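Exercise: predict the fold of this chain.
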Amino acid sequence: MQIGLIGLGKMGGNMAERLRGDGHEVVGYDRNPASSRTVDSLQALAGALRTPRVVWVMVPSGEPTRATVAELAEVLESGDVIIDGGNSRYTDDQAHAAALAPDGIRYLDVGVSGGVWGITEGYALMVGGEDDAVAVAQPIFDSLKPAGASGFVHAGPVGAGHFTKMVHNGIEYGIMQAYGEGYELLKAADMVTDPDGVMASWQEGTVIRSWLLELLVRALGQDPGLTEIRPYAQDSGEGRWTIEAAIQHAVPLPVITSALYARFASRQEDSPAMKVVAALRNQFGGHAVGHEGSTAPVPIS
């Protein structure tokens, strides 16, 4: 099927390539003229798509997404579907759907997990929206998701997709922090002579094996002891939103809350645990990391 894809950066560009590889026609737009875009405006994008149009927005959350959705409302029509696949806050999704409803434009929010590996491994998709809109976009979801029965869920009405992804990322914070703290303790104990080897050994047969552990071992292989990485970890905002939602629902989240606070602490002091978190963020999402001695995060090759 046809799909318009707005935002051809690290994630969007890979998603476009995966979709094309599965036989879909992708009409791409990006503000950057040096990108792989196929049209040079949102109006041209709308004109290139057959109705009902499906347009996937893959731009930074917040004002860039809000502005893009507002611009799309001017060029799309009743029956078309807008999908926000970024990391928007679920309350923004609800506001977008309400604003688009009078014109009959349907809206889906999709939490996407998979990072830079999604192009080959597939993207886990968490979808919020009405059944009819999901059905229109289902062929796209089927091509983006991993092979097999898992990796896709219609989580509920508008907002449920990004709420689910928010919780997913909160859990991710806690797991990454636990690996980091365990690694720091291994390094601090004189009796453990090969902390990196210990982490590698845990990839098979243990109850704590996971894809994140595999990525950590990969990072350690590239930089033994993580000596080249600054222990500085940013947060995308979703950890904060998760904790705010927990407060609203009176749900205790001590692990996730502590993991977020640890990231705050990483910006003030040296910590092997935060080197692990920084390395893992680079491994699964291509997020920039800082090298020792630098004053700003930089990407590693």
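Check your answer against the key: The mean pLDDT is 92.
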